[in-house]
Design brief:
Helices cover 81% and strands 0% of the residues. The chain has 12 helices and no strands. The chain has helices spanning 4-35, 40-46, 50-71, 78-107, 113-118, 123-143, 151-175, 180-185, 189-210, 217-246, 252-257, 262-282. Helix 1 packs antiparallel against helix 3 (50-71), helix 6 (123-143) packs antiparallel against helix 7 and helix 9 packs parallel to helix 12. The radius of gyration is 20 Å and the shape is globular.
Length: 283
């Protein structure tokens, strides 16, 4: 026999959360448009700017990841759930826009990101920005998942995650036989896609480091640092060995650098994302 009272409560809760998601999704888009020096709708609709579309897609996906993570866990009642999910996601909007500034000033710091997106319609730059958004969203999602944490832990782990992204970007540039900034500025989309995918993979691993019940600052920060250091070593090694398996007769760095092979860049990025996802579930 169907419990109609229970079913109606579930339907109301689902519809309320979906409505909240739509409102926050629209708000996130409005905030992004207000904080940019250009009109997003005009760039995508009238100027067919794929770079702006790619970066916006990464931003909105990151918002959705944070929203979904805030839904996980036991219900505290519909009203409290709506307040909690809305609060975390609104904080996520602020943090993601902050991550955009960090990306511009510290990660892709050798050129102006807005210029690359608008004047050059540089999809490679957009891919890195989208990867940074998604990685940041994953880390915030991990920080709010589990018992004992809260807004403060989300802020702290976001800061730790941004530092980890910055360090990894430096390492990534050092281990590649070319200058990433220079190649991306030359509109090498393949390198941008490869780096963006690698940043997402790092975000998945760091989400695992930030997730779980909050025990203490010493324990949780220590765990996050340990996971970060492991990721800095594991991801480059895995990328090297998998490239030899996937393309044994070709140098994938040569393909994405000299040949600007977007297909190779996509494959390179997706493979490390796949590995990070499996590592997330087995670690």
């Amino acid at each position: 026999m169907i419990d109609w009272d229970y079913a109606s409560v579930k339907v109301v809760a689902a519809l309320s959360l979906l409505l909240l998601y739509i409102v926050i999704f629209a708000l996130a888009k409005w905030v992004a448009n207000r904080l940019t020096a250009y009109d997003i709708n005009d760039q995508i609709s009238n100027k067919k700017n794929k770079a702006v579309a790619i970066s916006l897609a990464g931003y909105l996906l990151a918002i959705s990841i944070i929203f979904a993570s805030a839904l996980i866990g036991p219900s505290q009642g519909l009203v409290q759930d709506l307040i909690s999910v809305a609060s975390y996601t609104l904080i996520g909007i602020v943090l993601l826009n902050l991550s955009s500034v960090i990306n511009d000033k510290l990660i892709l710091h050798k050129f102006n990101n807005a210029k690359e997106l608008i004047e050059d319609q540089n999809a490679g730059t957009a891919a890195v920005i989208a990867g940074s958004y998604i990685a940041s969203g994953l880390m915030v999602a991990g920080a709010i998942h589990g018992e004992g944490g809260g807004i403060v832990t989300a802020l702290v782990f976001f800061a730790c995650g941004q530092n980890a992204l910055l360090i990894f970007a430096k390492i990534y540039n050092l281990i590649t036989p070319f200058d990433i900034h220079e190649e991306i500025e030359k509109d090498n989309v393949a390198i941008g896609v490869s780096m963006g995918g690698t940043m997402i993979a790092l975000g998945i691993i760091l989400m695992n480091g930030a997730a779980g019940d909050f025990i203490s600052w010493q324990y949780n920060i220590g765990r996050f640092v340990l996971v970060s250091c492991a990721a800095f070593i594991i991801l480059p090694l895995f990328r090297f060995f998998m490239d030899k398996i996937l393309m044994p007769h070709y140098d994938i760095n040569h393909e994405i650098h000299s040949n600007s092979n977007i297909g190779a860049g996509i494959l390179d990025g997706i493979v490390v994302i796949c590995f990070a996802t499996i590592l997330f579930f087995v670690a």
